[in-house]
Amino acid sequence: MTAPTVTAILLAGVRPIPDPLAQAAGVAAKPLVPVAGVPMIDYPARALVGHPAIARVLILTQSPRLYADNPATAWLAEHPKIVFETSGFGIAASLLSLMDRADLPYPLLMTTADHVLLDAAMLDRFIAQATGADIAVAMVERATLLARYPASRRTWLKFRDGWWSGANIFWFGSAKARPVIALWQDVEQDRKKGWKILTAFGPFALIGAALRMLTLRGGIARIGRRFGLVARLVAMDRAEACIDADKAEDVALIESILARPR
Predict the structure, then answer these.
(1) Which of 171, 207, 249, 253 fits 136 for a cystine, CB–CB 3.0-4.6 Å?
(2) pTM of the entire structure?
(3) What is the Cα–Cα distance from 85 to 110, expressed in whole angstroms?
(4) What is the C-alpha radius of gyration for the chain, rounded to an integer number of angstroms?
(5) CA–CA gap between residue 184 and residue 205 (Å, rounded)
(6) Closest CA to 44 of 3, 73, 87
(7) Non-local CB neighbours of 249 within 8 Å, separated by 6+ positions
(8) How far apart are CA 260 and CA 131, in angstroms?
């Protein structure tokens, strides 16, 4: 068996404004919100530590004690593959700080604590297709999602090759990804607003998307060339890849999926 080589980063921070799910559940942070009776962070954390390609998991949060002191998540602090890292101000700034460390080898795979449905098959597909890229992003085309979950609502970016929504899995294959992350830092507060993100990549990207001149694959590759790196779209083939626990209706849908026979 090939030795594990990927370092996973699991985002489990607390945003400055109160999270409605955490408030409704009476917990201190969104990753502790119960989904089917289990803190949501439990699901992606177990998927990551159980995957044979992943050597270790860094949980990035402002408050590691929130998880270490909670009986339901104390296992995270005790697991030999898991290390807690205290995050700074913003995801991009924290990621850049991690990438400056000599003890953090590439490639890096990043995902979020609300990616409850993340599983080995999704990780298999993403790692296989992202390997060799300096930066890669997982996304799901709208037809893939709506074929299984027609009532699910997502944020979509419209391109010539379809309407796309993020799957909250990112790949940083080398230090060449740093300039893109630095740009992400500039637009981080607008990450849900697709047009502002596209504007940051230049007027051609914005006009091309508006006129449906660009495919998303081509656009990402073009952005990569602009930064002198290999950038890649990983189109996920399962609708569940873009269903995160962002709202109460998402949690209800996720719990119904988890309840199905496997």
Answers:
(1) 171
(2) 0.88
(3) 14
(4) 18
(5) 15
(6) 73
(7) 153
(8) 32
**What is the predicted pLDDT for the residue at 204?**
47
The string of pLDDT tens digits covering residues 75-109 is 999 999 999 998 876 787 888 888 888 778 899 99
Helix or strand run (H / E) with residue 48: helix 42-49
The 10s digit of each residue's pLDDT in 132-160 is: 999 999 999 999 999 999 888 887 877 77
Q: Which two tokens stand for residue 224?
A: 């990569």
C-beta neighbour count of 143 within 10 angstroms: 10
* CA contacts within 13 A on the Cβ side of 115: 26
Q: How far is 52 from 55, CA to CA, in rounded Å?
A: 8
Q: Which amino acid is at 49?
A: V
Q: Which CATH architecture fits 6-257?
A: Alpha-Beta Complex (3.90)
Polymer length of the chain:
262
Tokens of 21: 């799910």
- DSSP result, 160-224: TTEEEEEEEEEEE-SGGGHHHHHHHHHHGGGTT-HHHHHHHT-HHHHHHHHTT-S-HHHHHHHHH
Rounded to an integer, what distance in angstroms lies between the CA atom of residue 220 and that of residue 42?
32
The secondary structure element, H or E, covering residue 85 is strand 82-86
- Highest average pLDDT, of 35-39, 65-69, 210-214, comes from 35-39
